[in-house]
Structures are given as structure tokens and as C-alpha cells.
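Sequence in, structure out. Go.
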Amino acid sequence: MATTDWKNKTIEYSRDKKQLKKRIKELTKSRDEWKEKSIRHKERADKLASDLKKIKSRLNELIKVGMSGKKNPFVIKNVLINWHPI
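Output:
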């Protein structure tokens, strides 16, 4: 009787151990996927912030040209032509 008791406990323990190892692999994979996703989102957010900064800069240039007393369409056209948001 005592022999079967420790034998059953050992079998149950090894089964639990396998399940835990499997769960650890699942969690590690999930964590890595979320980490990669987070990095991609941060890169995209940084790029959008950079583009927004460029757009604001160009708009400020246009406003300064428009606010100056001179009406020079060449300058405005030149600013628009040289503008590359992306």
C-alpha cells in the first residue's frame, strides 16, 4: 500500500511539472509577442510625433510668410514644393 502511494504521488507530481513547464512556455511566448507589439507601436508613435513636428514647422513657416507685409507667391509656392511630410 505504501509503495503505490508514493508511486502515485510521483506520477502526479511529474504530470503537474509538465503542465507547469507547458504553461511557462505559453506565457513566455505571449510576453514576447506583446513586447514586440509594444515596440512596433512605440516606433510608429515616435514617427507620427516626428511627422507632426515637421508639419507644425512648415505651417509656422507659411504663417510667417503670410503675416509678412510682402505678398510673394513664389516664396509660398517654394515652401509648399519643398515640403515632404514623410
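Check: The longest helix spans residues 2-67. The two ends are 77 Å apart (CA to CA).
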